[in-house]
C-alpha cells in the first residue's frame, strides 16, 4: 500500500506542464477518474443535464484539491462514491427515481438536511431559502460541489470508520457505506470499489 506521502505526490502533485504545452495537466488524477468512472462524458454534450455534467478534465482540479491530504484508501473510496452517486460526473442534482428530489444533490448526492448543513458551514446566504434554492447555491461552485464528499466524511464518519478507511480495506469501504453514508452495499457499489482498488493497487486486506 502506498504511504500518504507517496500518494500526495501521485494524486495532489499532478499539475505539471511540459516545455511545449504550458497548460497544467492532471495526468494521474485523470487516469484515476476515467478508470473508476468509465461512463464519463468526454464533452458533456447531449447528456440528460448538460449544465450539471462535468468532464474528467473539468473535475480533476477540484478533486485534487479536495483529496490532496488523503490516503490512497480514502481517495479510492471517495471517488467510488462520487462515481456512483453522480453517474460518472453527469449529475449534481437528484433525478432518479423520477421525478427526483430537487433539494438533494452535490457530487455525493447528499440529502436535503446535509446540503443545508454544508451550506451553513460555507457561510452561504441561506436564510429564508427553500431546500432546492440552497442546493443551487452549493452546487453553483464546482469546488463546493466536489468537496462535499470530503466534508461529509469528516463530519459524519466516526473515528473508527475513518481509521479503517485510511487503510483502504474492504471492511473500511463497507463501514463507509453502512455506518457513515447509511446505505447498503450493492453490486453497483462493489463494481466502483473494485475498479478503484485495481487502479490504486489496493488488495482490500
TrEMBL record:
Key words, A-Z: Signal
Superkingdom to which the source organism belongs: Eukaryota
Signal peptide annotation: 1-19
Signal in keyword set: yes
Name of the protein: WGS project CABT00000000 data, contig 2.58
Species whose genome carries this gene: Sordaria macrospora (strain ATCC MYA-333 / DSM 997 / K(L3346) / K-hell)
Amino acid at each position: 500500500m502506498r504511504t500518504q506521502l507517496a500518494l500526495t505526490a501521485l494524486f495532489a502533485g499532478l499539475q505539471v506542464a511540459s516545455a511545449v504545452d504550458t497548460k497544467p495537466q492532471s495526468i494521474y488524477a485523470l487516469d484515476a477518474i476515467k478508470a473508476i468512472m468509465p461512463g464519463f462524458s468526454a464533452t458533456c454534450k447531449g447528456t440528460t443535464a448538460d449544465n450539471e455534467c462535468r468532464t474528467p478534465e473539468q473535475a480533476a482540479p477540484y478533486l485534487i484539491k479536495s483529496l490532496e491530504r488523503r490516503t490512497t484508501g480514502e481517495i479510492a473510496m471517495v471517488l467510488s462514491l462520487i462515481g456512483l452517486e453522480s453517474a460518472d460526473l453527469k449529475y449534481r442534482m437528484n433525478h432518479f427515481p423520477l421525478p427526483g428530489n430537487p433539494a438533494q444533490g452535490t457530487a455525493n448526492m447528499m440529502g436535503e438536511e446535509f446540503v443545508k448543513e454544508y451550506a451553513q458551514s460555507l457561510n452561504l446566504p441561506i436564510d429564508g431559502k427553500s431546500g432546492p434554492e440552497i442546493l443551487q447555491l452549493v452546487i453553483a461552485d464546482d469546488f463546493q460541489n466536489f468537496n462535499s464528499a470530503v466534508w461529509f466524511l469528516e463530519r459524519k464518519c466516526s473515528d473508527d470508520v475513518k481509521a479503517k478507511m485510511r487503510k483502504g480495506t474492504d471492511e473500511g469501504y463497507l463501514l463507509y457505506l453502512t455506518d457513515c453514508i447509511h446505505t447498503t452495499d450493492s453490486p453497483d457499489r462493489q463494481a466502483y470499489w473494485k475498479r478503484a482498488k485495481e487502479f490504486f493497487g489496493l488488495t482490500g486486506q
